[in-house]
Specification:
Layout: H1 13-26, H2 33-46, E1 50-54, H3 57-67, E2 75-78, H4 85-92, E3 96-99, H5 111-117, E4 122-126, H6 137-147, E5 150-154, E6 162-163, E7 166-167, E8 174-178, E9 192-196, H7 199-209, E10 213-215, E11 218-219, H8 230-240, H9 243-260, E12 281-284, H10 288-297, H11 325-333, E13 334-337, H12 345-356
């Protein structure tokens, strides 16, 4: 059987074990030296002046918005194709999510749709670097500058990705990361972090993650309890050293998929930038259900990211979301094939052969560019 991914430590197991043992031996578990060391290391890897570790990626997004002063009465334009937590984070900050449709090839938010969605209430644009591919950040940055709104990057699936040679997260005022166990850099539980070049924003984010405390037991403003703990910070710091080689492994497997799927009856979203880090490898098929069953019958595990566009989620109904027809089509057709650093090249060949096999459902090219 070809599993979709493996979450148990592999070549990094000794480093992970040593990191955990070090924290346990020290007996300091919250807001300690391990978190500070990881924050410095991750900030350095991202070329960001400040990094603030928090409980999870959703909190990172919500606190990023709050640290910028965005809240009730504000609108934040974001992508309809993502985990729903992107929009829920906007709502947690008290703002209203507004959805702009996606580019049919890049699958990230379409700058033209963003420009059309700007209103007097728009406070921020929040693009999602979905599946590990950067959104069109130069275009989005130009729109944000022209309309004088904040740019906040959802980098939860794009650790150390780049856009035109520049690190994602460096285009906006703040960037948010998730270290959920399935991510390219994963913890052994929930974990998140935000980065910024603004010292005042970083200082406020640190207060907000710790109950709004200005100092011990003195709460200057309404904050939350969202702190990246020492064990997760130590594990992430240990694994950060492995991330570049894991990323190269993902890119090599993705190249192999692209070569083997040239004649397959699916649409493979093109790589628009060599800085793509391939958190996932999605394909689109008009016969997705049949294709997924066809692969399962051959012992190949696949997943759907994501079956329901965020504007179609019942939890968002009260926000009066606009229609996003490209996202609707993509969510009806997308299927993620196995791709992780431990996947053998032969497994990629087997998956691709099964997708291309005469018995595979014939779905055409699915979503085509406008």
């Amino acid at each position: 059987m070809i599993r979709f991914l493996h979450l148990t430590p592999g070549p990094d197991a000794a480093d992970v074990r040593a990191a955990i043992d070090r924290v346990v031996a020290r007996g300091w578990f919250i807001l300690g030296p391990e978190l500070e060391a990881f924050e410095r290391a991750f900030a350095g890897a991202c070329a960001a002046p400040h990094a603030i570790g928090v409980g999870n990626g959703t909190d990172a997004l919500a606190l990023a918005l709050r640290a910028l002063g965005i809240g009730p009465g504000d609108e934040v334009i974001t992508a309809p194709l993502s985990a729903a937590y992107t929009a829920l984070a906007i709502m947690m900050a008290g703002a209203r999510p507004v959805f702009a449709d996606i580019d049919p090839e890049r699958l990230t938010i379409d700058p033209r749709a963003v420009d059309a969605a700007i209103t007097s209430r728009t406070a921020a644009i929040l693009p999602v670097h979905i599946y590990g591919q950067a959104a069109d950040m130069p275009a989005l940055a130009a729109i944000a500058q022209r309309h004088r709104v904040a740019l906040v990057e959802d980098c939860c699936q794009a650790h150390l990705a780049t856009c035109e040679g520049r690190p994602v997260g460096s285009f906006g005022a703040v960037a948010a990361y998730s270290f959920y166990p399935t991510k390219n850099l994963g913890a052994l539980g929930d974990a998140g972090l935000l980065t910024t070049a603004d010292g005042a924003v970083a200082e406020r984010a640190r207060r907000l993650r710790n109950g709004g405390q200005t100092d011990r037991y003195h709460h200057g403003e309404f904050g939350v309890n969202s702190r990246l703990d020492e064990i997760q910070a130590a594990v992430l710091h240990a694994r950060l050293a492995w991330l570049p080689r894991w990323t190269e492994a993902r890119r090599a497997l993705a190249r192999r998929y692209r070569e083997r799927l040239r004649d397959a009856p699916v649409f493979v979203p093109p790589e628009r930038d060599p800085g793509h880090v391939y958190h996932l490898f999605p394909v689109l098929s008009e016969q997705r259900t049949a294709l997924q069953r066809h692969l399962a019958d051959r012992g190949i595990e696949t997943l759907i990211h994501y079956p329901v566009p965020i504007p179609r989620q019942p939890a968002l109904a009260a926000e009066r979301p606009a229609a996003c027809p490209v996202a609707d089509r993509v969510c009806a057709q997308v299927l993620s094939l196995p791709l992780h650093p431990g996947l053998a090249a032969g497994a990629v060949d087997e998956v691709a052969a099964a997708v291309t096999a005469p018995a595979a459902p014939r779905g055409g090219t699915a979503v085509a560019p406008d």
